[in-house]
């Protein structure tokens, strides 16, 4: 019994130490009723609890609407505690901008609290894919103890096609499908009364985006749609909120253009990727955070995309 008590005491001490070491989750108010927390510019790790993306919320007289659920159940619990310091209203809805792990692993916490989850139906294919389940399995090792056997993939309660208007307490949330861009299911959430837009990973502010297998052509068009909005503040999926969207979103758009132009020319000229990557001038972007982890992979995936687009142009019409 003494040994068991010592073991429990030791476990509690370790847990307490882990909580003491957790990364700060500081609320930033960006509009009269809108807030967000800014994830770290890092790769996900046990040390940062996978706090590498943003999440936001808007307080209405009829409840709180949350945008994205962060990268671990623990982070979602901490976000709920932060919301409780602002209002005693319950969270009624969670709108998921896209189903990447760093935005969704906290969903189960909100679901347990009775929140309704809203997402684009394009995410259902990913949720049912081997990729999503393998990613979760890997995260249970790579991000332990924050992602564990109890962490699960949570589908939406309402799958939307967009555009959709959600009304809560007299406040309108305009939900638009802007994919396939960063992902097939990308959503943005605009709150006209606040002039506040949550852009998800359509917009990475002050750092290089992860492009993956994105449709960068549609992504650029979607960024133009965002810039056409009457916004005072745009909250990105990663990085600080922008009060100068034309400047800040322009950086993401310029980078995508550069990828397409440089890799597209290499494909048209039959230049192999390695040679093309070495010959490309990256000086306008190499100072940006996450250039090292992201740029080569972004360039390679864009090279493959430009090959597909070139083959599509050459295919005979029927």
Give an overview in words.
This protein is of the alpha/beta class and 318 residues long. 40% of the residues lie in helices and 20% in strands. The chain is built from 10 helices and 12 strands. It has a 7-stranded mixed sheet with strand order 1-2-3-4-5-6-7. A 5-stranded mixed sheet has the order 8-9-10-11-12, with helices on one face. Strand 1 (27-29) and strand 2 (34-37) form a beta hairpin. The termini are far apart. Mean pLDDT is 92; it is low at 1-18.
Brief description of this entry?
The protein has helices spanning 2-20, 73-86, 101-104, 107-112, 123-127, 130-142, 216-227, 245-268, 273-279, 291-314; strands at residues 27-29, 34-37, 55-60, 63-67, 91-95, 116-120, 158-160, 164-168, 171-177, 187-191, 196-204, 233-238.
Extended strand count: 12
Distance between the termini: 79 Å
Judged by helices, strands and strand pairing, the structural class is: alpha/beta
Q: Which strand-content bin applies to the residues? A: 15-25%
Strand order of the largest sheet: 1-2-3-4-5-6-7
Shape: globular
Characterize the quaternary organization of these chains: single chain
Summarize the biggest pleated sheet: 7 strands, mixed
Mean pLDDT: 92
How large, in whole angstroms, is the Cα Rg? 21 Å
Order of helices and strands: HEEEEHEHHEHHEEEEEHEHHH
Instruction: Point out poorly predicted stretches.
Output: 1-18
Q: Can you give the helix content as a percent range? A: 40-55%
Provide a count of the helices: 10
């Amino acid at each position: 019994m003494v040994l068991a008590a010592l073991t429990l005491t030791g476990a509690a001490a370790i847990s307490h130490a882990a909580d003491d070491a957790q990364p700060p989750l500081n609320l930033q108010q960006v509009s009269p009723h809108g807030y967000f927390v800014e994830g770290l510019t890092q790769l996900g790790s046990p040390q940062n609890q996978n706090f590498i993306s943003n999440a936001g919320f808007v307080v209405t007289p009829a409840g709180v609407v949350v945008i994205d659920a962060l990268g671990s159940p623990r982070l979602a619990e901490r976000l709920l505690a932060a919301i409780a310091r602002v209002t005693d209203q319950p969270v009624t809805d969670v709108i998921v901008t896209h189903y990447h792990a760093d935005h969704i692993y906290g969903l189960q916490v909100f679901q347990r609290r009775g929140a309704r989850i809203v997402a684009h139906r394009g995410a259902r294919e990913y949720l049912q894919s081997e990729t999503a389940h393998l990613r979760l399995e890997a995260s249970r090792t790579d991000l332990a103890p924050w992602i564990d056997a109890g962490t699960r993939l949570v589908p939406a309660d309402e799958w939307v096609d967009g555009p959709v208007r959600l009304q809560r307490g007299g406040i309108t949330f305009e939900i638009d499908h802007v994919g396939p861009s960063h992902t097939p299911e990308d959503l943005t959430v605009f709150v006209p009364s606040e002039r506040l837009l949550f852009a998800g990973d359509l917009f990475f502010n002050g750092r290089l985006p992860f492009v993956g297998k994105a449709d960068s052509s549609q992504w650029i068009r979607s960024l133009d749609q965002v810039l056409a909005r009457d916004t005072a503040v745009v909250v990105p999926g990663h990085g600080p909120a922008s009060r100068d969207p034309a400047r800040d979103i322009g950086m993401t758009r310029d980078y995508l253009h550069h990828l397409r132009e440089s890799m597209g020319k290499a494909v048209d000229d039959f230049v192999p990727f390695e040679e093309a990557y070495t010959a490309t001038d990256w000086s306008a972007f190499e100072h940006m955070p996450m250039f090292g982890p992201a740029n080569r992979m972004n360039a390679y995936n864009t090279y493959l995309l430009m090959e597909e687009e070139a083959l599509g142009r050459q295919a005979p019409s029927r």
